[in-house]
């Protein structure tokens, strides 16, 4: 029975097809169920609250997180003298979103008055470590500007690249790509051709088994390493740490992935030893890789931060399609040349061309899905074009995109130019630039008297291997992308953004607010209700800061009638600052008065204060709220749809043409 | 109110600003920022309003046309303290500022917008109420902070010429002959034509009199006071130095922890107005008939009244 007939037999059997589908679904569901229902965890409330002034030092500080549960927490509360006044933090046994930190202070009463800073770090159910900080004060002592700014700076997402996790993730993705794309490409583009020309498949089997064995070993090692890297969030690596990690929801999910990876490795161990039919080790590789891939996607950035099911599906589709493209290319680069060597010289170009055509169909589908899902993922995680240059995530994605474009270019060259040369060597331009680059079928004479069109095959092999190298690098970069905060998180409301409003007159006034936003076409500041804001005023004459001869004051009045007036403190920088919390949402007017250069000045600035409910929203799809960000996101989403549609049409056309040729 | 009667300037203390109201339209046309704790405001010339910030001991000079702060004039020595401004056409462009933290009367050059001198009146306490007699060119400065006397200054020489054993607000009669001084439970009248500020007589007024407005009827001069500790306004026959009437004017609020109480009273076109903050009304009294016309309900918090003639 030929491979084609064999494949048809295998998949024509409805019962086996159902068994195959059920097995795949069971593996995916098992991996998914074992994965905790996790979402991006963030601090939603605390007691005392951020910027709150309390009468006396409380007995404990409580942190309430939203998104999902907290596995471990480390909280440090520092008093006015910088001393640690906190005991060990504990996660509430009945509510995993609640963390309590008892306070112990040697002082009480007036001696305990002053500013306190709280720094926290948690390991969330999604495996991400999240950190943050805030401040509160005891007594009437006003909040200190520098301390508040420092707290906000500490609250920024850590963009550090975790080397162990990044490397493990990258290698895991490479392994998945090989284990997904390899069997499919072999089944569609290698074995049918070999069967048709009567080539021996033994060496192909051997080469492919070795390739997939290496990939499965890489999968097992990388899954193991990833789990161990994550376990170090609980402490230094030890048996106890690993066991503690394995007992957590995230750890249990890791165990499932490890089990699947071990099963795939064992399968190939048995396959190399012999005795397992080809369809079993090919199918097992594919199913095992899909299972691990689904589990990885279930806890991806997209799944935990955007939408569990939608994010996981998109993420998995992206990885799987990359598998079709890159994994298939690996087979083309490493297995097809072996097949060609086993093929009669007269049939080599035909075999090569046929292999490329068959693979191209898969690759076209893979590229279409990979690019479309990639654009879709980017629309979630990159809020604006500027964000590409403002974070590690953005820079990595930009590099990855460039490499993908290079890979696509090479792929196009292989598909269009080389394929044409293979199929019509007499018509090929041997004297043109391409011909000279390729060595030209008509001009190159082999020493062994071989066929002159072997030059095209050599060129094809070189091009494919170069393309593989580039795309493997792309996959490795994806490991970095999945290990650092996304551009949306980095550029989101976690950072201490500063908004500035300037007014020009005889004396120029500059008002800076942190944290604050300001829309491009709006003269108002956008502030957050209940959150301490550093308001800083500078009087300038050109580049010089002017000193005010009178106390600089701020009068804040809301539409609702709330009103307060404060004096600003002069800073070392020559500005005047205060830290205030606007107690109600809505529109406010901030009036600044002072007397720089013996001239009384008064300026009023508008502010819009947003309530806690409307702005403390970590749904990244809402991040692009202003016009420019929405346009960029819309363009990406439109691009995703357009690529999907155009690519699907191209695949359909290619499939039709392929059928006609066949 | 501006001299031309077109605008009303009102200190909104809680917002540290002065509101400008167009009298014809009765709409707020401007909000002019000033220092905190604004209390008294003066209109020494047609172009300017001088509003005093007690928190800074500083006058904010407001241009009555463009509603901008022209200058700030630091009157108090310590850049703080409740204060008033004494000015009269006899002084030219000079004014005299009092400050409860300074035992002095500060000489203000109102053209140069600066304090040019301080007339020392003692070693302790401060200055508060002020008065002036054009007949004698003598200025009177109450010595506050427990001192309980009033310094007399010759404004031609800016020297202290006397010290009177009395304290409280001083109110010159329309004919500039007498200077009424409100003390505790009494009103003392001084001869405003006398270089020695001779005392003419005293009228006992129960109920804590505050704010004295004069009215002449049938050749007799009457004084109307609003009382802080009783719900009435007292009418005094200044010529006979006797209380002739007490008219129901309503109660003011008396916070328990208040160390001093004030009740304002203004008059115009034969009417006497005084707020009754506890009742939420303003009493309107016919000065000729010496009878209450009405308790007019007003919003909570009204404690100052300005009469705008038609």
TrEMBL record, chain A:
Check the record and name the InterPro entries matching this protein.
Answer: CopC/D (IPR032694), CopC_dom (IPR007348), Cu-R_CopD_dom (IPR008457), Cu-Rt/internalin_Ig-like (IPR014755), FixH (IPR008620), Ig_E-set (IPR014756)
Q: Which domain of life is it from?
A: Archaea
Positions of the UniProt region annotated as Disordered: 72-102
Q: In which compartments does the protein localize?
A: Cell membrane
User: Does Cell membrane show up as a keyword for this record?
Assistant: yes
Q: Which ranges carry the CopC domain?
A: 40-138
Q: What is its main location?
A: membrane
Statement: the UniProt record of this protein carries the keyword Ribosomal protein: no
Q: Which Pfam family name is an example for this entry?
A: CopC
Q: Give the stretches traversing the membrane.
A: 17-43, 171-191, 211-233, 253-273, 280-299, 319-340, 361-382, 402-418, 468-490, 631-653
GO terms of biological process kind:
copper ion transport; response to copper ion
| GO CC aspect terms | periplasmic space; plasma membrane
Could you tell me where the Acidic residues compositional bias lies?
81-95
A GO molecular function held by the record: copper ion binding
Q: Which keywords label this protein? A: Cell membrane, Copper, Membrane, Metal-binding, Signal, Transmembrane, Transmembrane helix
**Location of the Copper resistance protein D domain:** 355-481
Q: What is this protein called?
A: Copper resistance protein CopC
Q: Which organism is it from?
A: Natrialba taiwanensis DSM 12281
Classification lineage: Archaea, Methanobacteriati, Methanobacteriota, Stenosarchaea group, Halobacteria
From TrEMBL, chain B:
- Record-linked InterPro entries: Host-pathogen_enzymatic-act, Quino_amine_DH_bsu, WD40/YVTN_repeat-like_dom_sf
Query: Gene3D superfamilies recorded for this chain?
Result: YVTN repeat-like/Quinoprotein amine dehydrogenase (2.130.10.10)
Q: What is this protein called?
A: Uncharacterized protein
